[in-house]
């Protein structure tokens, strides 16, 4: 358990580093309810292979990671010109409603603007009303694409990769 941190303490937003993995995985577990250490380890390892188009930022106060955001510039999938995509965002529960998510999204959008991107997209679960409200409060609206999916049936548990070792 972390000691209480004064939310008035300055917030630092910076590129992710290798020592940030445990904090990111812990915040994500608070948000998603699923421990995904392997996923974040692989994501961190692969991050940076596309410099200038991939962005993985953390927010910290008093050297404690309290939030993260990950995004990428993608072009021409489904006929769409270049746009920024927000892939993941998470804020520690004890820092919700403190503007951390907004500051992270502002920083990511600044990177997108510097790369001459004029549109940002994301995808969220319909039942995640809190996240939907966050993005809508930022001015995001339904976009021109409709997500579709097909259930492929069950997978043999013995053949499936573990979520986390």
Architecture overview:
This protein has one domain (12-137): Gcn5-related N-acetyltransferase (GNAT) (Aminopeptidase), CATH 3.40.630.30. The protein is 28% helix and 21% strand. The chain has four helices and five strands; from the N terminus they run βααβββαβα. The protein has helices spanning 21-32, 37-46, 100-114, 129-137; strands at residues 12-15, 54-61, 64-74, 83-91, 120-122. The protein has a five-stranded mixed β-sheet. It is globular. The two termini are 24 Å apart. The model is unreliable at 1-5 (pLDDT under 50).
In short:
Helices cover 28% and strands 21% of the residues. It is an alpha+beta fold and 165 residues long.
Main traits of this protein?
165 residues, five-stranded mixed beta sheet, 5 strands, 28% helix, disordered N terminus
